[in-house]
Design brief:
The chain has one domain. It is built from four helices and three strands; from the N terminus they run H-H-H-E-E-E-H.
């Protein structure tokens, strides 16, 4: 259990070091993917803190403390909207899809 907590805390720290917000880099989906990673790591932190299990609802207020600049600072460079979703389900962007979809190229465009 302790190694898992340490790993998750390390991931959150690293994700907080990645700049958030809108970026106009050469590949906007990369920035969106990083925002989804931040949200997913923040959800994991909430699950640990509040003892949440798969299917539990988390709010933007609950995950904001675990995201540099808070949840409101995360914006898709292509104007997608983010859905946090339930614990155990990946967050998603209305333009780019979820991280899994982006990895496999199955996101709807």
């Amino acid at each position: 259990m302790l190694p898992t907590v340490v790993t998750v805390l390390g991931m959150v720290f690293l994700l907080m070091c990645i700049p958030s917000g809108v970026h106009s880099g050469p590949y906007p989906p990369t920035w969106c993917y990083n925002n989804l990673r931040k949200m997913d790591a923040a959800k994991e932190q909430c699950a640990l803190k509040y003892g949440l299990t798969n299917g539990a609802t988390v709010t933007s207020e609950q995950i904001s403390p675990y995201i540099g600049g808070g949840f409101g600072s995360l914006e898709c460079a292509e104007h997608g909207s983010y859905t946090i979703d339930l614990i155990g389900i990946e967050p998603r962007c209305s333009v780019h899809g979820s991280m899994s979809e982006m990895n496999t190229g199955t996101a709807k465009r």
